[in-house]
Structure to design on (338 residues):
């Protein structure tokens, strides 16, 4: 089966992990003819299974599930402890306690096993490539495997492992950079990266990063992408699970740009530039998911308090085009140009 034989519009909706993705959003995108994705990178296996069940109730069309491939624990414990001491006043101000900076695999083995046992249409992987044997097991169950890549080298590795398609993520993308290794910041613009990856592999490519309107989608499809993936564009929709603080910040004129930082999670991610980012950028160690767990309660408290200056405001460079409208309208606008 081809990549989009059962999808009417070549639009993949994959908002960042952390609450923005919901069964309601997946269903709305599916009804409009696109392909919705559940972002289950952080979810425990039982929560992922429950979300899959809720999504199957909400839509009878194919959808995808995205997981984070765990890396090795290479963090400097002292650097993590020093960062915890630095940001402790931030948590205290919000009436929160810092979380335990533990390493973990986000329940990856159990989630992978669940997807093999009870297949979904598409399984997406970020932060690395699954083992070839796991890809074969997923494909035997009828699941299409998609891997996010940020370099031509990563693309070759994913194709050799058996991936059916690649999400090509340019530097413009909001949220975490999906690189296999977080050793350096990915700075290649999407159009350039799409050309590099397209020259390196003969595999369907899904363009991702900064695409927020029909004009952006047209450019990527004309450049050889089989489909486009949108994340930030869906954050302000009523179906999105993003906090109201996050939604409002995307339209707030006080936030004038984005930057890539490790300050919130210990892994490079693009966020709106706010006070927390300006204060702590460049100081947080490369320690994921330790810093993610450390700052989690602080960030949750900031969202509840409406404090956008202490919240991880994941956003791609096209964030100003994110509209407060139904998700179906976003898909429909792109459908008109393809």
């Amino acid at each position: 089966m081809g990549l989009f034989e059962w999808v009417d519009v070549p639009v993949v909706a994959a908002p960042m992990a952390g609450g923005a993705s919901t069964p309601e959003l997946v269903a709305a995108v599916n009804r409009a003819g696109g392909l919705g994705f559940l972002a289950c990178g952080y979810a425990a296996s039982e929560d992922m299974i429950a979300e899959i069940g809720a999504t199957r109730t909400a839509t009878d069309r194919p959808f995808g599930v995205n997981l984070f491939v765990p890396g090795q624990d290479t963090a400097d414990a002292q650097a993590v402890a020093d960062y915890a001491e630095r940001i402790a006043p931030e948590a205290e101000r919000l009436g929160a306690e810092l979380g335990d900076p533990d390493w973990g695999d986000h329940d990856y083995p159990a989630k992978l096993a669940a997807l093999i046992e009870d297949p979904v249409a598409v399984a997406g992987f970020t932060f690395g490539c699954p083992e070839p044997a796991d890809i074969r097991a997923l494909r035997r169950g009828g699941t299409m495997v998609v891997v996010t890549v940020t370099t031509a080298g990563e693309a070759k590795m994913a194709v050799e492992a058996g991936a059916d398609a690649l999400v090509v993520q340019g530097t413009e993308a909001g949220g975490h950079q999906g690189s296999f290794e977080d050793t350096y910041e990915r700075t290649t613009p999407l159009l350039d990266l799409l050309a590099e990856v397209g020259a390196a592999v003969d595999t369907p490519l899904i363009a991702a990063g900064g695409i927020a309107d029909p004009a952006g989608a047209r450019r990527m499809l004309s450049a050889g992408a089989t489909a486009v993936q949108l994340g930030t564009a869906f954050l302000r929709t009523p179906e999105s699970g993003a906090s109201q603080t996050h939604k409002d910040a995307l339209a707030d004129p006080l936030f004038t740009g984005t930057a890539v930082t490790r300050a919130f999670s210990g892994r490079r991610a693009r966020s709106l530039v706010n006070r927390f980012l300006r204060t702590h950028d460049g100081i947080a160690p490369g320690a994921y998911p330790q810093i993610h767990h450390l700052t989690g309660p602080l960030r949750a408290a900031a969202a509840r308090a409406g404090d956008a200056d202490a919240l991880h405001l994941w956003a791609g460079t096209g964030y100003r085009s994110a509209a407060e409208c139904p998700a179906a309208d976003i898909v429909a606008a792109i459908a008109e140009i393809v």
